[in-house]
Design a protein that fits this description.
By secondary structure, the chain is mainly alpha-helical. The chain has two domains: 67 residues, Tetracycline Repressor, domain 2 (Orthogonal Bundle); 154 residues. It is 68% helix and 0% strand. The chain has twelve helices and no strands. The chain starts with a helix and ends in a 19-residue tail after the last helix. InterPro entries: Homeodomain-like_sf (IPR009057), HTH-type_TetR-like_transc_reg (IPR050109), HTH_TetR (IPR001647), Tet_transcr_reg_TetR-rel_C_sf (IPR036271), TetR_SbtR-like_C (IPR049445).
């Protein structure tokens, strides 16, 4: 009787629930990296070794699962941007931001799609954070240009373009960290004012906002993504 009581104690139940939750999050990151953010939620449950009902209890929608699976990475990006703005040398801040975000791309291949997708279930919050990030990026770029380190024709959209290019390379060469680091080094060198030997074509219309609203193709979230886990295959 005492043994049964120990096995069903509240502490044991909570510990089991925490383990299940962590298994689901780890499985979600792996499945999303392999199959994109629109992968069937049943596949996540199978990978985690839990029932779909268990997944439901922890994450009632796909959006909730995606947000939580990559919460640490998003927080790291936000912190890196704040640290970049606080840096005494704006160029050092910009370099730190680029290197940090690209390192996240390498570590979690599902994260780029999660970051670029607009998370329909939290659209107002996501849009607000996106607008703030765009303002902060523009401020960082302006400071770096004014310091004389960043080439004078650099545009904030160039940074977005560089990150998208890096995402594509990581998708094509997921296990080649050396290629990732070399591309980041090339990009950062090309940003420097002392490397601006020839004028660039006009900047593109890329922005974080535009990216967020169009990143719902393969691997991104679709408008139907707020369905409850388990309602798809």
């Amino acid at each position: 009787m005492q043994e049964s009581s120990r096995m069903t104690s509240p502490d044991r139940v909570r510990a089991d629930a925490r383990r299940n939750r962590e298994r689901v999050l780890a499985a979600a990151r792996a499945v999303f990296a392999e199959r994109g953010l629109d992968a069937p939620m049943a596949a996540v449950a199978r990978r985690a070794g839990v029932g779909v009902a268990t997944l439901y209890r922890h994450f009632p929608t796909r959006d909730a699962l995606v947000r939580e699976a990559f919460a640490r990475q998003r927080e790291t990006c936000s912190r890196a941007l704040a640290e970049a703005l606080a840096a005494a040398d704006p160029w050092d801040g910009l370099r730190h931001l680029v290197e940090t975000v690209c390192a996240l791309h390498r570590e979690e291949r599902g994260f780029p799609a999660a970051f670029l997708a607009a998370f329909p279930g939290a659209a107002p919050e996501h849009a607000r954070l996106g607008r703030r990030a765009e303002r902060d990026l523009a401020l960082l770029v302006r400071r770096a240009r004014e310091s004389g380190a960043l080439r004078p024709d650099f545009h904030p959209s160039d940074l977005v373009m560089a990150l998208v290019a890096h995402c594509g390379m990581v998708a094509a060469l997921p296990d080649d960290a050396a290629a990732s680091r070399r591309l980041v080094a090339y990009l950062l060198q090309s940003f420097r004012a002392d490397r601006a030997n020839a004028p660039l074509p006009p900047p593109s219309a890329l922005s974080l906002g535009a990216l967020l609203s169009t990143a719902r193709g393969p691997g991104g979230l679709s408008p139907s993504s707020s369905r409850r886990p388990g309602t798809r295959g």
